[in-house]
Design goal:
Elements lengths: L2 H15 L55 H13 L1 H21 L5 E4 L2 E6 L5 E13 L6 H67 L7 H33 L26 H7 L1 H22 L4 E12 L11 E10 L7 H67 L5 H35 L28
Length: 490
């Protein structure tokens, strides 16, 4: 073949290597809204002072270590341990590292392979004559990516790595939010324990007073068993609180990578006020939720797979070459006559496959369309969750405001009835009713506070925490020889 013809062939190969028969990916439209309905200023204009309201301005964003918004140093320390020692997060991180490695594996398909197979042999006869043979062959092969099959494979794995990165961030957010919820649940159990301790102490004082009243003839002896029953019932309820607290403490230990048997938390009641949370605007949600980012990258991955399927309609070209040194004597191996070489090319085209390629592309296209539906459903679910937790915070905050007033009134009534019982004006049963009413009001007050704090955590999780889609690893150009950006160890 002449030099001119060789140049034409090389030019055609280079030109065709730039072709990509797959569809160009365009991000599909997603559902959206101008604002969150539940965070409209009109919803809070008549709210009582002290009740929860979204942070202003409404387009503000959560940042970085979102749990610091609660201003709880103990929670901050636990979250720091979780990010380092949580085993589920480590599992997702290693899955991400494996996905990054697959990108490198796929990218190797763009380049030729070169192999060497040196050999040396010696032989002899009975009369002492010997001979030796040496070879140093090199073989190269290359399949030019004429129709984008390899490039689309690289894109597929690049998008898969981004999906894995988004999954990692979503799992981190889930574990962080779960830890914060368990923390506030545990502190709520401490507050419940405090309520029961106070009521038990009050009942014991009443038992002493009742015995004194019986001794003086103001009250009858059958009242004493009633007071004792109240003490025992309150103590039994307090034991149940301790069991629930232990369960939350064990769960926190597991989240931060510690054996439950070696971990404990000091007792401290729930006093954390709910913070004002910047909810932002709905359009930001598409960039702030890692599960939405994963769903969007899944569509891009499915689109690349369609390109791989369409490349099967076109012929494949393989180039091969071999050369090296071969000589019957080691001393002559590196001389010019020992040089040998050969070049070859082959092409292959499927002529009949009974519709296999058509069916494959149809399958890949249907998978892409399903991923589009999943993406839009993920967005809709995200909007629902944000609206749900804003509404939950709004309602429970107003419940707390009214429940505080109920507890204050209940305490006033108990104080009045205690005075009347001590002076013999009212029977003990009247005081019991007042105390049980106050106890239920106090327990409800603590429950509302716990619900308020966990709803705040759930709202932050629904907003994506402090994450942003710009933190996804950017895949390199498919022709680049630069490695992927270094990943940070969690």
């Amino acid at each position: 073949m002449s030099i001119d013809k060789q140049c034409v062939v090389v030019f055609c190969i280079i030109f065709l290597s730039g072709c990509n028969v797959g569809p160009k990916y365009v991000k599909p439209a997603a559902p959206s809204a101008p604002a969150y309905k539940e965070s409209a200023p009109a919803e809070y204009s008549a709210a009582p002072p002290g009740t929860w309201q979204p942070a202003q301005p409404q387009d503000a964003k959560l940042k970085g270590k979102w749990w610091e918004i609660f201003n709880e140093p103990e929670l901050n320390a636990l979250e720091g341990q979780l990010n380092i020692d949580n085993q589920t997060i480590k599992q997702y991180f290693e899955n991400f590292m494996a996905a990054r490695a697959q990108v490198r594996e796929a990218r190797a398909g763009l380049f030729p392979t070169l192999t060497a197979n040196p050999a040396l042999s010696a032989s002899g006869t009975g009369n002492g004559a010997t001979s030796s043979t040496g070879t140093l062959p090199l073989e190269a092969s290359w399949a030019p990516d004429l129709w984008g099959r390899v490039r689309n494979t690289i894109h597929e794995y690049q998008y898969a790595a981004q999906i894995s990165s988004a999954d990692l961030e979503n799992e981190k957010l889930t574990e962080q939010a779960t830890l914060a919820e368990y923390y506030f649940e545990l502190r709520g159990q401490d507050s419940l324990q405090e309520v029961y301790n106070q009521i038990v102490a009050a009942y014991r004082e009443e038992l002493k007073l009742t015995k004194a009243l019986v001794d003086t003839g103001i009250d009858s002896p059958q009242v004493i068993p009633q007071v004792e029953e109240s003490v025992e019932a309150a103590e039994a309820a307090a034991v149940g609180v301790a069991a629930n607290r232990a369960i939350y403490e064990h769960a926190i230990a597991t989240l931060i990578g510690k054996p439950a048997s070696t971990f404990s938390m000091p007792v401290k009641g729930l006093t954390t006020p709910v913070p004002a949370i910047p909810v932002g605007v709905p359009s930001q949600l598409l960039e702030r939720r890692p599960d939405i980012a994963a769903a969007e990258r899944t569509m891009a991955e499915a689109n690349a797979v369609i390109g791989i399927g369409k490349a099967a309609y076109y012929p494949t070209l393989s180039l091969s070459g071999s050369g090296g040194l071969q000589s019957s004597g080691i001393s002559k191996l590196f001389s010019l006559p020992s040089v040998f070489w050969s070049l070859g090319a082959s092409a292959a085209q499927t002529l009949f496959d009974a519709g296999l390629r058509n069916a494959t592309v149809a399958q890949y296209t249907a998978t892409y369309n399903a991923d589009v539906a999943l993406y839009r459903q993920t967005v809709l679910t995200a909007f629902q969750q944000v609206e749900d937790y804003i509404a939950a915070l709004k309602v429970v905050s107003r419940q707390i405001e009214r429940q505080n007033a109920a507890v204050h009134s209940g305490q006033t009534y108990v104080n009045l009835e205690a005075s009347r019982y001590q002076t013999g004006l009212d029977p003990y049963i009247t005081l019991i009713v007042a105390q049980l009413t106050l106890l239920n009001d106090q327990l409800t007050q603590v429950t509302y506070h716990v619900n308020e704090m966990t709803s705040a955590v759930q709202l932050i999780q629904a907003l994506g925490g402090g994450w942003d889609a710009s933190q996804l690893p950017t895949p390199p150009q498919v022709t680049s020889k630069e490695p992927l950006p270094a990943a940070k160890t969690p």
